[in-house]
Amino acid sequence: MKRKFLTILISAILCISMSACNKSTGKNSKQTKNETNKTETVQDDTARRFEDLGIEFSLPNKWKNKAENIDAYATAPEENIEGQVIVSFILDETMEKARKLNEEASKIPETDKEEIKKAAAEIMDLTNEFKELWTVVSIDKSKKEGKVQKDLFSKYENKDLIGKEGSLEFYLLYNNKPDTNGLSERSKKDYEEIYGGIKEFKSLIKIFKPVTEQEKLSKHKKFEFKTKTLDGKEIDSSIFKDSKLTMVNIWATYCSPCIAEMPDIEKLYEEVKDENINVIGLVSDTPDVDNEELAKKILSKKGVTFANIIPDEKIMNNILNDVSGVPTTFFVDSEGNIIGEFVVGSKNKDEYMKEIQDRLKSIK
């Protein structure tokens, strides 16, 4: 799901213009995977947990003043590799470049679509300056070793087995020395210091049985809330009784696939509302004053007329606590019971319509 530091910076740029956000990537694309999959924090604000891969790690105490320089993201399954967690170091110079580019981009007129796209691309290009530290990889031993694993393992001098879970084996991959070519003396010192802490890092990696998105979400049987809409109106789960089925679309202001699918969801809403079927949005990165204002602008520009709600404490501590990525969509009956599985990733109007029809069959 979804690089944390640059994602925060680039989200503002992507949402300056809805045309920049409107690049539909499709739920199976690499871009969507990177944008929607989030790293879950546990124990402290430097810990990272990847539940669907069964990998968790904390940072050594001596690194904590450099926590924002440590980037970690997960890749999608490929051949016999269930996934990789790639850990990198972000140079201070790179972070400064990103801040300056973001500052300059915020001054671009909303109407200058080409300049906005160019600015977003320049910031994303900065990920090429990230310096890899090491990789934690999950291998499914029940599958034949593929070319991807062979190529991956050939890049590293050390392939340390750090744990097993069922048919899965977990390896820490790293080289003996970092590549410091082209770095300033300051960045070289920081990078070498962190790179040299591999043994401490290794001792802080925890391996556990992976938990899939559907496994996490399947424990939720009912959706209840008492909150407000983005427009400030009181709303609670009693609204479900007015419809035979309600589609709940969880999205975030930083998620371009979420924003890209909004016109289709609005068309869907217009088609089904006369059939006693409702649609509501749930803005996952609220309550937050700035994000609420941004969400209103996004909904206005996308022509969305269905209600969008701000999560209350009950929503935050239940469903949102187990949602690893957005968009995620689910359906409830007139009593608020969740019907069928959660839908992870974006879909078009016809695909959502099929999800609705399938669930209507089960509640007749």
UniProtKB/TrEMBL annotation:
<dbReference type="Pfam" id="PF08534">
    <property type="entry name" value="Redoxin"/>
</dbReference>
<feature type="region of interest" description="Disordered">
    <location>
        <begin position="23"/>
        <end position="43"/>
    </location>
</feature>
<dbReference type="InterPro" id="IPR013740">
    <property type="entry name" value="Redoxin"/>
</dbReference>
<feature type="signal peptide">
    <location>
        <begin position="1"/>
        <end position="22"/>
    </location>
</feature>
<dbReference type="InterPro" id="IPR050553">
    <property type="entry name" value="Thioredoxin_ResA/DsbE_sf"/>
</dbReference>
<protein>
    <submittedName>
        <fullName>TlpA family protein disulfide reductase</fullName>
    </submittedName>
</protein>
<dbReference type="InterPro" id="IPR013766">
    <property type="entry name" value="Thioredoxin_domain"/>
</dbReference>
<feature type="domain" description="Thioredoxin">
    <location>
        <begin position="216"/>
        <end position="361"/>
    </location>
</feature>
<keyword id="KW-0201">Cytochrome c-type biogenesis</keyword>
<keyword id="KW-0732">Signal</keyword>
<keyword id="KW-0735">Signal-anchor</keyword>
<keyword id="KW-0812">Transmembrane</keyword>
<keyword id="KW-0676">Redox-active center</keyword>
<keyword id="KW-1015">Disulfide bond</keyword>
